[in-house]
Amino acid sequence: MSAKLHGLLAEFADAEQLHGAALRTKHEGYLFIEAYSPYAIEGLAEALHPRKVHVPFWTLVGGILGGGIMYFVEWYSAAIDYPINVGGRPPFSWPAFFPPTFEMTLLWASVFGVFAMLIGNGLPRLHHPLFAIPEFERGSSDRFFLLLRAHDPHFDLPRTRDFLATLAPLSIIEVPE
C-alpha cells in the first residue's frame, strides 16, 4: 500500500449492530474508535472511549484572566496612573469598576470556551479522509459506520481486519490518509 492508512472502516446495516460492534471493540482494547450514524443511538457514546473535555477548565481560565486583567487596568488607570478627584470619591472606587469587569469576564470566558471547543474537536478541518470513501455517503441516510484509527496502539492491519470480520459488517474498507 503506497498511501498512509487512516484506519479501517466497517459498515453496518442497523444501529444495534453498530452499538454491539462498538462495545466489542472497546472490550477488545482499542482506544481510538469513531462511530458514524444518521441519528443518535442511545448508549453509543458510552460504548466508545469518550475523550476528556477541557472546555470548562479553559472557560474558567478565560473568565479569571479577563476579569483580573480588566480590574487591574481600571485600578491602575484610576488610582495610580491618572487619579482624578470626582465629587470627593476616592480614586479607587470599586463599585464603579464592577460592571466592566463583569462584562470582560463573560467575554473572555466565552472566547476561551469557543476556542477550547474548536481545538478539542480538531477544527477547523476542511477535509476528512472519510469524505473520499464513496460508501460513506450513505452514513447520513441509512448506514452505520465504525472507524478504527490506524494510530491506535492496538491497531495491526491484518489482526484488526480479522477482528472486524468477526463483527459481521457489510464491508470493511481501508481509509487512506
> Uncertain runs with pLDDT below 50, 5 residues or more?
none
Overall pLDDT metric: 92
State the end-to-end distance: 12 Å
- Structure annotation, total helices: 5
- Main sheet: strands, sense, barrel: 4 strands, antiparallel
- The portion of residues assigned to helices is 40-55%
Please state the CA-atom Rg, rounded to the nearest Å.
26 Å
The coarse silhouette is: rod-shaped
Strand content: 5-15%
* Biggest sheet: strand arrangement: 2-3-1-4
How many separate domains? 2
Tell me the number of strands.
4
Structural class from helices and strands? alpha+beta
Q: What structural keywords apply?
A:
177 residues, rod-shaped, 14% strand, 5 helices, alpha+beta, single chain
Brief overview:
By secondary structure, the chain is an alpha+beta fold.
Secondary structure: elements and pairs:
Layout lengths: L4 E8 L2 H14 L4 E4 L7 H4 L7 H27 L12 H27 L23 E6 L7 H10 L4 E6 L1
Antiparallel strand pairs: 1-3, 1-4, 2-3
Structural description of this entry:
This protein has five helices and four strands; from the N terminus they run βαβαααβαβ. It has 177 residues and is an alpha+beta fold. The protein folds into two domains: 5-51 and 122-176, no CATH class; 55-120, no CATH class. The radius of gyration is 26 Å and the shape is rod-shaped.
